Amino acid sequence: MRRDYIDTGYSPKDTDLICEFHIEPSAGVNFEEAATHMAGESSIDSWTEISTLSPELAARLKPHVFYVDEDAQTVRVAYSEELFELGSVPQVLSAVAGNILSMKVVDNLRLQDIAFPGSMLHEFKGPKFGLPGIRELTGVQDRPLIGTIVKPKVGLTSEKHAEVAYKSFAGGCDLVKDDENLTDQKFNGFEKRAELTLKLAEKAESETGERKMYLCNITAPTCKEMIRRMNVLKDLGASYAMIDIVPAGWTALQTLREEAEDAGLALHAHRCMHSAYTRNPRHGISMLVVAKLCRLIGLDQLHIGTVVGKMHGEKHEVLSLHDECVLDNVPA
After folding, report:
1. Residues 172-222 pLDDT 10s
2. Whether residue 292 lies in the annotated active site
3. Nearest-CA neighbor of 151 among 173, 174, 181, 172?
4. Which of the following is catalytic: 62, 161, 268, 270?
5. Is 222 exposed, middle or buried (0-12, 13-18, 19+ CB in 10 A)?
6. Which of 36, 116, 238, 260 has its CB 3.0 to 4.6 Å from that of 120, i.e. a possible disulfide?
7. Are 330 and 287 a contacting pair, CB within 8 Å?
8. Is 316 a catalytic residue?
9. Domains of the chain, earliest start first
10. DSSP classification of residue 26
11. What is the biggest distance separating any 2 CA atoms in the chain, rounded to whole angstroms?
C-alpha cells in the first residue's frame, strides 16, 4: 500500500469525483492509516505492494484525501474521473462503497455523500417527469398529492384489490399504489390486477373529473420480465410504474430508465430494504446517497420518510432528502 494518499493541500479539480466518509479505525490503527487504506482500496491500491503500479500510473490516478477531521471522524477523498465508467452507478459503488466496507482496518465506515463532476453528471438522464411533470400529469398544481396503498399488503384477489383502489380514488386520492411485496402472486396476478385496477381508475376519473393514477409494482426476477411488465402497463394506458429499488438493483434501475423513455411512464421508487445499509449512522451508505443516485438515474418519485409513523427517519434526514430530490442547487 502506498503512503501518499493523505494530501490536505490538494484542491479538488472540476473533473474529480468527491466522496465524504465517516471512518472509525480498528484498535491499534491510527486515523490517517485507516484513511490511507480506504482511499487506496477504493481506487488503485491493495493491502500489499503492487509491482505493476508504476509511479507514473499512481501519479495520474491516485486518490487524494484532501480533508481530514479526526475529531469528527470525517474524511473527504477526491478521485479522478478516469477511475470510473461514466454513467454506471454499479461501477461507481463497487469502488467507493465496495470492498472498503469490509476492511479489517476499520470498525465502521460509512459513505455519507458523493459529488459528481459535470462530465459524469451529463451521462445520466435524470427524471423524465420530475415534480413539474408529475403535477402536469396529475393535473394537481396547488396542493399536495394525496395517495394511499392497498392493504393488506398481500392476500387480496385482483378483483378485491381493484375495488379497494377504486374506493380510494372515489374518496379523493390522486395516487393508489401497490405495496412493495405484491408483484405476481397466484392469488393476485400482475396482469389481471393491472387491467382491473386501471379500468376502475378510469371509472373514478369519469365520476370525479380528476386524474387518477395507479402505481403498479413491476419488480420482477429479471430485467427482461420487468420491462415486459412495464410495457403491459403502457399498453393498458397506465401513466406510472413502481419499482422496489434496492431489491431490484442499480443495473435494473438504469435499464428501466432507458426503456421508460419511450414508454412514457413515470417511475415511482419504493425504497424497501434500504435500511440494510442506510440505518446504521456509522457504517454503510447514507440514504442521501441513495436519493442522489435515484435522481441521477432518472426516477421521478422516491419514498423519503415522514418523520412520524412506523418507520425510522429523523426530521433533519427527511428534510435533507427532500432537498436532494427537488432543489436545483442542493445545500452542502
Report:
1. 999 999 999 999 999 999 999 999 999 999 999 999 999 999 999 999 999
2. no
3. 181
4. 270
5. exposed
6. 116
7. no
8. no
9. 16-121 (3.30.70.150), 130-326 (3.20.20.110)
10. P
11. 73
Q: Which residue has the cell 472509525?
A: 24
Give pTM, 2 decimals. Answer: 0.94
Task: Calculate the alpha carbon distances from 220 to 69, 94, 185, 242 in Å.
Answer: 44, 23, 11, 11
Q: Among 147, 158, 134, which Cα is nearest to 240's?
A: 134
Cα-only R_g, the chain: 22
Which of 151, 153, 312, 315 is an active site residue? 151
Q: What is residue 44's DSSP assignment?
A: T
What are the residues whose beta carbons fall under 8 Å from the beta carbon of 307, sequence distance 6 or more?
313, 314, 315, 318
Strand order in the sheet with 301-302: 240-244, 266-270, 301-302
Q: Is the peptide bond before 152 cis (omega within 30 degrees of 0)?
A: yes
- The cell for 40 is 487506496
Question: What would the grid cell of residue 284 be?
Answer: 454503510
Span 24-81, pLDDT tens digits = 999 999 999 999 999 999 998 887 778 788 888 888 889 999 999 999 999 999 999 9
For residue 240, give the C-alpha cell. 406510472
Q: What are phi and psi of 55, to 5 degrees?
A: -55, -35
pLDDT in tens, 87-138: 999 999 999 999 999 999 999 999 999 999 999 999 999 999 999 999 999 9
The burial class, CB within 10 Å (0-12 / 13-18 / 19+), for 170 is middle
Q: Which residue, 47, 19, 43, 49, is CA-closest to 34? A: 47
C-beta neighbour count of 321 within 10 angstroms: 22
